[in-house]
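Protocol step 4 of 6: structure prediction from sequence.
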Amino acid sequence: MIGRLYFEGKGVIRDFTEAAMWFRKAAGEGLPVAQWDLGMMYYRGYGVSKDLATARAWLQKAAARGYAPAKAILARLDASADSVSGRDRS
């Protein structure tokens, strides 16, 4: 996948913005690995503005296609959100 080459800087100069563009193209075609990669870029703010809602949306698409790493991070995000909301009630 071209996005991965730009993300890792393999054979090209590392460029997170370019990687995000290629991940977005592949994610739009329904590739769960690209949906995961793009979601994680939004989660971390690599090559795009950090946006947890957009990250979650892409991760949910990857999870819906059975991509286990996306399911795992969504579970962690949900647990973290539950933990924070539980503290707010105290």
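Step 5 (inspection) to follow. Helices lie at 2-8, 16-28, 32-44, 52-64, 68-88.
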